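Severity: low
Component: inverse-folding endpoint
Summary: output formatting inconsistent between runs
Steps to reproduce: submit the following structure tokens with default settings.
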């Protein structure tokens, strides 16, 4: 049955699996029927967002698509302190210069999801107000409203007390609460959202607003997204999957999504794409077995389109399809899209030939010669879709196709192309 057009963003969050806890499950759905301003804070200690950051970013995008005004808050000030939530040790303290540089890069990535024109969304940096605070005034005006006993009872603090919590980090909750109050006061921000580990910080901000302004604010937390096999979303053997194309190419990003576990496809379509839920449920939710590839392809294409753009998503899909359909066809090898990870080598390099394991080591398929040897010895290495039987098998120029290309494969899904640079 098709939902009426009066669907609110709260309905969307519930249907798509964004909500873990809310501070007021009776009033909040009513509040979100009118236009509100909300915010989420983002840690600027990395020079790029990664897949693990997508749930809060997508939540802001959904808010905007339903007529609300989202604030993406870059933690330039709180980043100088470090949030102890969800950490078992103190975060690395970065310099002002490092944080400002990271914040500028993150701002560009936000623009893929949000429209900042005509005040439709705001991009703020809490360094603009936190770094100007007078310490004594802050203690008198803000610190007086916080109970140390209550702060010590917070789960994030209790965990860290076992390993050591610095006074610097202990102050973090006051600063984040101040952020919420400041945006409530200056931007009429009524709601803060964040990960499940932010519940205590969000509630502290709501309490501060009530004490200082005598008014009500609201909060939503998102669940920690785990894959069906129990791993934290966005983590791979190679590390994080970045939104920055210089760190994770559009092809690698697409491959990450198309390799989603069968059990996660429908859930991830709901969380990480803007496809209507009716389409996800009716068109993809009922697919099984080999047909699930259609759903995975939709997930990979839509997720890549959001981050890298439609053209890059189409190129990555084309390359992935070519590899999936027939990697042994030399015509396919030469017409594959350039989005496939490629290493260029001079023709002279292959005059005497190169051992197969050295080729795999020279690409992103193996991190060392010993890893490449094990891969070949275990029967998981292929060149032009033919199994490599000996780790020291010599690969020469004659093994390349007429366009100077060979395709390496590790296992069933990891590919890398080598092309010859023929100097004339």
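Observed output (run 2 of 3):
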């Amino acid at each position: 049955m098709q939902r009426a057009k009066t669907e609110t963003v709260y309905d969307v969050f519930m249907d798509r699996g964004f909500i873990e806890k809310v501070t007021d499950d009776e009033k909040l759905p009513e509040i979100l029927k009118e236009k509100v301003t909300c915010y989420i804070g983002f840690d600027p200690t990395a020079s790029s967002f990664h897949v693990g950051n997508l749930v809060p970013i997508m939540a802001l995008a959904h808010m905007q698509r339903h007529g609300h005004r989202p604030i993406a808050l870059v933690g330039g000030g709180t980043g100088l302190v470090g949030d102890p939530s969800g950490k078992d040790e103190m975060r690395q303290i970065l310099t002002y210069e490092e944080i400002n540089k990271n914040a500028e890069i993150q701002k560009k990535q936000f623009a893929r999801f949000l429209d900042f024109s005509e005040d439709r969304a705001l991009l703020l940096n809490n360094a603009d107000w936190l770094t100007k605070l007078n310490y004594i005034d802050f203690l008198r005006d803000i610190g007086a409203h916080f109970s140390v006993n209550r702060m010590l009872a917070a789960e994030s603090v209790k965990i860290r007390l076992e390993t050591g919590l610095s006074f610097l980090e202990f102050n973090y909750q006051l600063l984040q609460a101040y952020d919420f109050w400041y945006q409530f006061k200056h931007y009429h921000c009524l709601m803060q959202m964040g990960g499940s580990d932010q519940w205590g910080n969000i509630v502290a901000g709501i309490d501060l607003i009530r004490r200082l302004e005598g008014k009500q604010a609201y909060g939503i937390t998102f669940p920690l997204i785990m894959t069906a096999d129990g791993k934290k979303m966005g983590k791979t053997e190679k590390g994080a999957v970045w939104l920055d194309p210089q760190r994770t190419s559009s092809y690698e990003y697409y491959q990450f999504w198309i390799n989603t576990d069968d059990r996660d496809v429908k859930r991830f379509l709901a969380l990480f794409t803007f496809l209507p839920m009716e389409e996800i449920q009716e068109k993809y939710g009922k697919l099984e077995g080999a047909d699930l590839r259609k759903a995975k392809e939709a997930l990979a294409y839509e997720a890549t389109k959001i981050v890298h753009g439609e053209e890059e998503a189409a190129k990555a899909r084309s390359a992935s399809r070519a590899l999936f359909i027939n990697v042994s066809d030399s015509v396919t090898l030469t017409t594959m899209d350039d989005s496939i990870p490629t290493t260029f080598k001079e023709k002279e390099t292959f005059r005497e030939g190169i051992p197969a394991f050295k080729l795999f080591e020279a690409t992103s398929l193996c991190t060392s010669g010993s890893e490449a040897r094990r891969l070949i010895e275990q029967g998981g290495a292929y060149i032009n879709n033919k199994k490599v039987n000996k780790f020291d098998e010599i690969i020469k120029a004659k093994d390349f196709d007429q366009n100077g290309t060979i395709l390496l494969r590790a296992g069933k899904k990891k590919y890398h192309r080598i092309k010859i640079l023929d100097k004339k």
